[in-house]
Amino acid sequence: MKANALPLAGVVEITPDRHVDDRGYFSETFRDRWFRDEVARVTFVQENQSLSRAPGTVRGLHFQTAPFEQGKLVRCLSGAIFDVAVDIREGSPSYGRWLGLTLTAEAGNQLWVPPGFLHGFCTLTPDTLVSYKVTQYYSPSHDAGAAWDDPDIGIAWPSIADSGLLSPKDRRHPRLRELVTSLDAAMERG
């Protein structure tokens, strides 16, 4: 496996080796010890999977609040996605900055999105299947997000991105600056 550190500190692209022959390929897609030594010392506790039928489906931008912050190891099992991470770590020099990476089943590459980041993706092909391991269990009361098209973040989504394919929950996410205010108020209420 190869680890490629990306411009936002802590975000890493992982490309597993593939052993190819005329039958297809074999690939080890995850190894705990290697991941801990090369990427992050975390434990994955849950694995999620999503199927998006239509190209242009946007899912995100999601995260969980403390104490249930999630790190995510994302990979595309079928099709292709434009995967996005947005830094929302308090005090980070790259706060509010984003990066995007195309993940495909064909390439087998993965994206490590540490805790403290918004995460989302746009499907690029029909019937796209995405899987991601997470470092904390899903907690509905800690589930949060920001608007996928927040102009303050300015993500350059692929032109195929279709706002008509957003979930009702994703349509209601606030802008990042409103999210910070609502989180601060929630913490003050304690």
From TrEMBL:
The active site is at 62 (proton acceptor), 132 (proton donor). Pfam families: dTDP_sugar_isom. InterPro entries: RmlC-like (IPR000888), RmlC-like_jellyroll (IPR014710), RmlC_Cupin_sf (IPR011051). NCBIfam families: rmlC. Catalyzes the epimerization of the C3' and C5'positions of dTDP-6-deoxy-D-xylo-4-hexulose, forming dTDP-6-deoxy-L-lyxo-4-hexulose. Belongs to the dTDP-4-dehydrorhamnose 3,5-epimerase family. Homodimer. This is dTDP-4-dehydrorhamnose 3,5-epimerase. It comes from Devosia geojensis.
